[in-house]
Design a protein that fits this description.
alpha+beta, six-stranded mixed beta sheet
Length: 458
């Protein structure tokens, strides 16, 4: 079948795809709750699996003695995952329906892979949390709900799976949905949708279930296709991290000086007064170049080049913001971090802090608490954070950085802590307060320095 070209030369299919919105979502749940089976069923029933992929899964399933294709193998791609029947790494899948495009992150369920869920959910617009209908809400379910709340994921779907193993009982679903909704709402999750499913049988995944006529809500795919995709970043504080300074110095453009980058949040307009941080110099937006064209307005997540009225010393890592809405740069920050490295993060640890396009030296001055996600309690002064720990840290940077609160902007309120020795990512950070409300330890005396800190001049 061929596609009919449109007037601009693109195919009708390409025009349709470009018109659809993009939804990033992540799946999470305890071991054997059926995450990979759900994803496989979603891909299979939405006709998003290539023939050779399906043939490979059918062959692998027969070699394991299965009567039919094991759809979980569509996402469990690592040899260790297939041998153990579990998900270890984050598996990304890209697919599309006529109504929407999707980027899916299938995250592991084991406690020791909590950091992988943080990776998968950090950019997600929606999280699907699976629960085995036979087991109900368990410790790992609460942990995944807490991570979704901590990362400010705006939409959460509770998929109560394996309903076929509880005789499709409405009261079982209702009890689980009530318990989970109460817990997630207390954490601050803004929207929760509960759907009873059987991923193995396909009930309420893509097609409505014929055996659960008591449920009148959407299927999983229908909800994914229709849930509003948040465009709040367009109305957030405008931020442009400078990635590159463009100076062609050619005969055609002898005086061209542009500051290129992807708009992290908000909207920029020509004629607007802007400030360059951390230096604090101000100017006015003279022009905006977008894809080789001059435009009057640009917004996130467009990649643009700003031209300013004044010649200012700007380089990679600087942040261009509206003068009327400029954050206050600082060297001391408090944040919630998820530790993702095998080596521990300790008080006095010398690190690199990467925020948007800016990387600066920093010291971990204090670790006030480690957060237990099961009950949101704080364990004060743990001394260190190890892999998969989530805790509160206080960091001092060698140079000022302009950091927003993560609650206001997930893009400009997040950062990474990096090992300066080998470039290993140590922790993913979210500036400002987390959802936890436990009392924190008293702040350390800022005038006190350890012998290790004294080696740094900040």
């Amino acid at each position: 079948m061929t596609s009919t070209p449109t007037t601009d030369g693109t195919s009708a299919a390409d025009a349709l795809l470009s018109a659809t919105t993009l939804l990033r979502f992540a799946t999470a749940g305890s071991v054997d709750d059926g995450k990979s089976t759900l994803v496989g069923r979603l891909l299979h029933d939405s006709k998003s699996v290539l023939t050779d992929q399906l043939e490979a899964v059918e062959h692998a399933s027969r070699s394991r003695g299965a009567e039919g294709p094991d759809l979980a193998l569509l996402t469990d791609g690592l040899r260790a995952e297939r041998e153990q029947g579990i998900t270890i790494d984050v598996a990304y899948r890209y697919f599309a329906t006529p109504r929407r495009r999707f980027i899916l992150a299938d995250t592991p369920g084991h406690v020791q892979y909590t950091r992988n869920m943080v990776t998968g959910a950090s950019t997600a617009d929606l999280a699907v949390v699976l629960v085995d209908a036979r087991n109900g809400v368990v410790e790992q379910t609460r942990r995944h709900a807490a991570v979704a709340a901590l990362l400010r994921v705006p939409h959460v779907v509770l998929a109560v799976n394996k309903m076929d193993l509880v005789d499709y009982a409405e009261e079982v679903f209702a009890s689980i949905a009530e318990e989970f909704t109460a817990y997630a709402t207390a954490l601050g999750v803004p929207e929760i949708t509960a759907i009873p499913i059987s991923a193995l049988a396909g009930d309420n995944v893509v097609e409505p279930s014929a055996t659960m006529d008591w449920y009148g809500g959407p299927t999983v795919l229908e909800h994914l296709e229709t849930v509003p995709v948040s465009h709040d970043l367009a109305s957030c504080h405008a931020r442009l991290p400078v990635q590159y300074v463009i100076r062609p110095q050619s005969a055609e453009h002898p005086d061209y000086r542009g500051y290129a980058g992807q708009i992290a949040a908000g909207t920029f307009r020509t004629g607007e007064s802007v400030t360059v941080l951390p230096g604090g110099r101000t100017s006015t937006v003279k022009a905006i170049d977008l894809l080789g064209e001059r435009v009057d307005v640009a917004w996130t997540p467009q990649s643009v080049t700003l031209l300013l009225e004044d010649d200012i010393d700007i380089s990679r890592g600087d942040l261009i913001v509206p003068t009327a809405d400029a954050p206050e740069p600082g060297q001391d920050l408090e944040a919630t971090v998820c530790h993702v490295a095998d080596q521990p993060l300790t008080v006095g640890h010398r690190v690199l802090l990467k925020h948007t396009t800016r990387t600066v030296k920093a010291i971990v001055k204090e670790i006030p608490a480690r957060v237990t996600l099961d009950d949101l309690s704080h364990h004060p002064e743990p001394g260190k954070l190890v892999a998969n720990d989530i805790g509160l840290v206080k960091v001092r940077t060698a140079e000022p950085i302009a950091l927003d609160s993560y609650a206001e902007s997930r893009r400009t309120g997040s950062f990474l802590l990096i090992d300066p020795a080998d470039g290993t990512t140590l922790a993913a950070g979210m500036a400002g307060d987390s959802f936890a409300t436990a009392d924190r330890a008293a702040p350390a005396d800022p005038n006190t320095t350890t012998g290790q800190d004294a080696e740094w001049d900040f």
